[in-house]
Amino acid sequence: MVKRAKKTANFRLVVVNGRAYVETYHKAFQTRDVFTLWGILQLLRKYPGKLPDLDLMFDCVDWPVIKSSDYGGPNANTPPPLFRYCKDNETLDVLFPDWSFWGWPEINIKPWVLLLNELMEGNKRKGWDEREPYAYWKGNPNVAETRQDLLKCNVSDKQDWGARVYAQDWGQESQQGYKQSNLANQCEHRFKIYVEGSAWSVSEKYILACDSVTLLVKPRYYDFFTRSLEPMHHYWSIKADDKCRSIKYAVDWGNSHQEEAQAMGKAASEFIKKELKMDYVYDYMFHLLNEYAKLLRFKPTIPRKAVEFCPETMACPAVGLIKEFMIESVVKGPSLTSPCTLPPPHDPASLYALLRKKDNSINQVEELEKKFWEKQK
């Protein structure tokens, strides 16, 4: 069953007796595979001897590919388990934390522990009253139509939608030493926009950490933690098909309801600081891989073409930011505490109630927004 996921996988990971073996099929974009594997090795260092033997396939591309519609009906095959960073409601890929938690050297994004501390410090530089009363976004618009559509919301001589959006030229940034892309220096607006790229975007956690109101353009994809976010508590939902007017309404509301807006921004940053701390990221990985291993109906063995990976063999030959980020994100030694306790899954009724509450919150705001714009006619 595992081998059926090989078609799009970048690598196969086998853990036997606490040691990691990797068979590479396709080199991933940039260093996604490198830092994903580095993160798994840190998990093995953090909880030595506690991870069971396992065998999995990992796809480092953004888009999920295991479609649930392909595995329906009484005679359908079991879907192959394929690990990746995001999925949507129509796919069955297995969610795993993305590579940037251990660093993204190609665009100078530091490991999460360091960056989260910098973001929290950045929040202190400007209070709500001092921040620009606009919605800010900066990124690469060329990867998705929805981002190109967002550019239309920028201020012009004819219209001000309350948005300040900027196209990021990563080539130019690299030449200038990333002076204009320091994430800790981008918490200077009361509102920050999250919009998906080619699929989900790693930028979501950085935006949510900013103490600003996150204006979240209604997404299709989600990663391992975002389903815990509550609309109108952690973020304000923005219509994907009417972005400019939706942003304008949200910005006007936030600037005229500043106490509520500040509370929303603070709730998001507190969620990121407390619930997405690196210890919990590792605990999610630990429980995910343990539960996955329980489903295997065979004893994992080392593939003939697999190579053993360990922190030393990865870090020693590395150079530049790759080596620097590995050193900065290395787990110093075994954890003195056990992983957190895995909570029980939602029963169908409580899950339905949770989803209905989220939908109701979004629908209420959209109805208020609709009435507002009808009055402007």
TrEMBL record:
Stored SMART domains: CAP10
Domain Glycosyl transferase CAP10 per the UniProt entry, residue ranges: 50-299
Signal sequence bounds: none
Superkingdom as given in the UniProt entry: Eukaryota
Name of the protein this chain belongs to: O-glucosyltransferase rumi homolog isoform X2
Lineage: Eukaryota, Viridiplantae, Streptophyta, Embryophyta, Tracheophyta
